[in-house]
Design brief:
Rossmann fold, 13% strand
Length: 316
């Protein structure tokens, strides 16, 4: 499937929420000006988002190339081990991937990403190794690393379990960045269900859940509405918007745009939930009448913790 056909598919997806373009006038000037957000910034941001989508696609392709057994009899290669051992590009796996016709939805989506990306497999592999090397070997600071990382559809349901402690009632819920368990950085298994854990969890809790995403495979598989939080505003109003494991990918300028845009889709009393603990999220929320109200610590696994932050809209 070509980039053009995927774009057409995205446009044909059911538009549960229509968008308009965000502008500097939608942002609090006391933050927009120091962050140099003007019309030119939005033009450049759209280009940057396309580049980050491509980089995220490269990661998914590389993880699948190294670990999947759906297209080859070659033994799987753990990406992190490949990075530590500086293994050469797996030419036999690459040849098998290119020669094999997809037989599953996951393989088909990966092949679609590869066809629209127009990167050689070796470039996908090297790009992914550079990220893993920075994260796992160089121990680079995570905040700037993730703000430069490609936009992937990584998904984790663990943080959402703390939603029950908030007792948030809502008739209309928006899940931003539902994610899709397409590939994994380690311990990938072809038999893993191709699902969005977050979306499934929320649909068991709330009567109406819309989804927005920027990734083409998520839009195609989940029929999500194509939407860029950093450049667009939703027309629909929601009682609750959830954006976990999403803001971590945004720098301060992007975070300001995302929070300001989402605030415009929340009536007074409605809530925004995320898991970004930056002070900037707090002050940006206050500037757009969306102050932080509460937070809950979340135990993930082992010695790992997260926390959910809840903002509540005070006025339009």
């Amino acid at each position: 499937m070509t980039r053009r056909s995927l774009c057409a598919l995205a446009l044909l997806a059911p538009y549960k929420a229509q968008a308009r373009q965000l502008s500097p006038n939608d942002l609090p000037a006391e933050f927009a000006k120091p962050l140099s957000i003007d019309e030119a910034w939005f033009t450049q941001q759209s280009k940057r988002q396309h580049e980050r989508i491509d980089q995220g696609s490269a990661e998914h392709i590389a993880y699948y190339l190294l670990q999947s057994s759906s297209f080859t009899t070659e033994p799987p290669i753990q990406p992190i081990l490949a990075t530590h051992k500086q293994l050469k590009f797996p030419e036999k796996r690459a040849a098998d991937f290119l020669a094999t016709k997809p037989a599953t939805d996951r393989h088909r989506l990966i092949k679609d990403l590869y066809n629209q990306l127009n990167w050689p497999l070796e470039r996908c592999y090297q790009h992914t190794r550079e990220f893993l090397s920075a994260k796992e070997i160089d121990q680079a600071p995570l905040e700037p690393l993730y703000q430069q990382r490609g936009l992937s559809s990584d998904t984790s349901p663990e943080s959402l379990t703390a939603l029950t402690t908030f007792n948030l009632s809502a008739k209309r819920v928006l899940l931003a960045g539902p994610g899709l368990d397409l590939t994994r950085r380690e311990s990938f298994d072809d038999n893993l269900p191709l699902v969005s854990h977050q979306l499934n969890y929320l649909r068991d809790k709330y009567p109406h859940v819309d989804t927005i995403d920027i990734r083409p495979e998520v839009i195609a598989h989940l029929h999500a509405t194509p939407h860029d939080l950093t450049t667009q505003i939703l027309a629909s109003q929601y009682d609750l918007i959830i954006a976990t494991n999403l803001f971590v990918y945004l720098n301060d300028a992007e975070l300001l745009c995302a929070i300001a845009g989402l605030s415009l889709s929340l009536p007074p009393g409605a809530s925004l939930v995320h898991n970004d603990t930056r002070f900037a999220a707090k002050v940006f929320g206050e500037a757009v009448h969306l102050p932080a109200k509460d937070y809950k610590p979340v135990h993930l696994s082992g010695n790992k913790w997260d926390r959910l932050v809840i903002h509540q809209k005070t006025k339009q």
